[in-house]
Design brief:
Strand order of the largest sheet: 3-2-1-4-5-6
Structural class: alpha/beta
Distance between the termini: 16 Å
Number of helices: 18
Number of strands: 11
Largest sheet: 6 strands, parallel
Length: 402
């Protein structure tokens, strides 16, 4: 597809993004830009397909929407010429590789800025571009990142080994952060004429988004043990199995919640059992033990739907633990069009999660499914001044994916 054939829409129309990243972290940053109207050119390695094309292709179909795909071999002399042509008028370049890979190819930030001084460059890697050489050169996937970043240590039950949190949260934390930082970089580059470079180490982003837990240890020496599916301090905070075998997750937390929720069991917030000096019931108190027992008994005697409706009517946050089958039929999901359909490039109709968040004045679109490898190579090269004969020659030299 040529650039002039693309629809114009969204908050990021007019933004040009080139990404040579794979799997999840870098591509999700690019995907969010594509869903908001940016022209996103995906460079897929000629040497190996993106891993996210596996598992039935749903990973790529979900997170390579609205992109155009060109497939060539970047480290070759000819590949570098193609990359330069793509980046000379780009706003953002995203790459994901082991730390220092692009520098080893002779593609340092300074080289890229010599092509385009306003370019915003985002380097995604597991351990960063600098630091201990043994770690900078290591490969990393989300569960390994969780292990190194202390995130896995928080998940699971105290009497069992730590568990990785699904579904690949450190990848998405990195992608979301990269999305925001890239746009901040573009704003500053347009103001100053000077580009920016970001070193996004996935493990650092994973440990940054752990609330108070790192400081609990660093400042106070307080560990954060694994607590399973119940809070280890607060009563009425966790998962409870109901009469029909379906579990709910609920939280008795906050003065309004306590005041209304305790009435279900005949108690008063502000009494000796539940003093107003605390906005929850500590498990270590008599009130906490009574509340925990009462909730467990109540859930065992009622269906999950009954529990959810009763507690929510009293202002207690509560939800059945949903699966995808339940979500697909749920009236709130349906009313908000959380799931939507779009056409794959081969004509199949696909269904998945819609664009989010809802945008009032310049809404997102899904105008195209995930492109096949090299699907737009010729069109993208034509857009960037390559003549048909040059493209044929590059193909003969085995630089482009056929």
């Amino acid at each position: 597809m040529r650039k002039n054939e693309m629809p114009e829409f969204g908050l990021l129309s007019g933004l040009k993004v080139v990404h040579a990243s794979s799997v999840v972290a870098g591509p999700i940053a690019a995907e969010l830009m594509a869903e908001n109207g940016a022209d996103v050119i995906w460079i897929e390695s000629k040497r190996a397909l993106d891993t996210n094309r596996g598992k039935g292709g749903m990973g790529a179909e979900s997170e390579r929407r609205n992109m155009r795909n060109i497939s060539f071999d970047i480290p070759t002399d000819e590949g570098k010429k193609i990359l330069r042509a793509l980046l000379e008028d780009a706003d953002v370049f995203i790459e994901s590789s082991k730390g220092g890979q692009y520098a080893r190819w002779g593609l340092t930030d300074d080289v890229l800025w010599s092509w385009n001084p306003k370019l915003v460059i985002a380097h995604f890697s597991g351990y960063g571009q600098t630091g201990d050489p043994d770690y900078v050169s290591r490969g990393c996937y989300d569960p390994v990142c969780q292990a190194f970043s202390c995130l896995m240590h928080l998940n699971g039950f105290a009497d069992r080994e730590a568990l990785p949190a699904r579904e690949i949260p450190s990848d998405y934390l990195s992608g979301l952060t990269g999305f925001g930082m890239c746009l901040a970089g573009v704003m500053k580059a347009r103001e100053t004429g000077v580009g920016e470079s970001f070193d996004l180490a996935q493990y650092e982003l994973a440990i940054r988004y752990q609330n108070q837990r790192p400081m609990d240890w660093l400042v106070r020496g307080v560990p954060s043990p694994r607590v399973g599916n119940h809070n280890d301090v607060t009563a009425g905070w966790g998962a409870y199995t109901c009469k029909d075998g379906v579990a709910v997750y609920l939280m008795f937390l906050g003065p309004s919640v306590m005041a209304k929720g305790l009435q279900l069991f005949g108690w008063e917030f502000g009494s000796e059992l539940f003093p107003k000096t605390q906005n929850f019931a500590p498990l270590a108190t008599e009130g906490g033990q009574l509340l925990e027992a009462a909730i467990t008994k109540y859930c065992a005697e009622h269906t999950a739907k009954e529990v959810e409706e009763e507690l929510c009517s009293r202002g207690v946050p509560c939800s059945r633990i949903m699966d995808y089958e339940m979500a697909a039929e749920h009236p709130h999901y349906v009313a908000r069009e959380t799931f939507t359909e779009w056409e794959a490039v081969d004509g199949r109709m696909l269904k998945g999660v819609n664009t989010v968040p809802k945008v009032a004045n310049h809404p997102q679109q899904i105008w195209r499914g995930c492109p096949t490898p090299g699907m737009d190579t010729d069109d993208i090269l034509l857009d960037h001044g390559f003549a048909p004969g040059e493209i044929a020659a590059l193909r003969e030299q085995d630089i482009l994916r056929s």
